[in-house]
Design a protein that fits this description.
single chain; 146 residues; alpha+beta; 3-stranded antiparallel sheet
Length: 146
Amino acid sequence: MLLPLLCVLVFGVYEFSWFFYQQHIASTGIRDAARYLSRAADPCNDASRVWVTAEGYAKNLATTGSITGGPPRIRGWSPAMVNLRCSATVNPIEVDGLQSYRGPQSIHVVTVSTRFADPSLGFFRFLGMEPPFISVSHSERATGPG
């Protein structure tokens, strides 16, 4: 009588452990991509070939762990699922004559994010539930090469 309950409990723990592991891998990939883009030359310039190439490399880095591509870190996660955003923040000169942040008049912030369905082990579907979504985002200040 306790065996079915025990099996559900064990498989549930295993499924959630798998989910958290996949989320950690996605988080690592997104962080790597944001760090890569933050060091790219000519940040946030969509007209620059260097920046466009760096964006493609960052998407590959997030999903495969290599800028040239390869097998995905997570089954079903592709570079098309990675979103890149670069925003500029004005760095004003305050009343005391100093800027709010160290750096130029305009500071660029790179944000890399993703959201996709977890490639679960199947226990959620067995219970009639939809698999959860993995949603990760990471921002880095663009510092350029150096």
